[in-house]
Design brief:
Blueprint: H1 8-19, E1 27-28, H2 36-43, E2 50-58, E3 61-68, H3 75-82, E4 88-89, H4 92-99, E5 116-120, E6 129-132, E7 138-142, H5 144-151, E8 154-156
Parallel strand pairs: 2-6, 3-5, 5-8
Antiparallel strand pairs: 1-7, 2-3, 2-4, 6-7
Length: 159
Amino acid sequence: MSFDSIPEPVANVKRTLTALGADDTVTVFDSRVPTAAAAAATLGCDLAAITNSLVFDVDGAPLLILASGAARVDVRKVAEQLGTGKIRRASPEFVLQHTGQEVGGVAPVGHPEKIKTLLDTSLKTHGVLWAGAGDHNSMFSITYDELQKITGAEEMAVR
């Protein structure tokens, strides 16, 4: 697949990874990988090594939580740690507006503007993590430390 034939959100993630000094490890699959379970099955890896990019709405501002695919985010715990009001799951329209990517394909990087980001500390236990790369068919691999570095995420126990 040539770079020109890659969907724009994926091309944007690839450019962003390169600009941030990270290896471009984006893989485009023939089948869709819109969920952590589908991605883990396709990749043959532990579900917990899939890094879900979950967008939440905090009083109209986006909050990106990079969480293990094996766990559910405890939004009350996160709100308490951040000292914010209620954290709500964002609508698909809100996600697209703030990330330029559709739900199920959101990457940790490549958004139109910087989004406050949290990184689930439980992901530290995996040598290689896999994250969405901008659409339902693409993922990229990265280490926990590199993911924290390129996103500038605040490390936090989110479950």
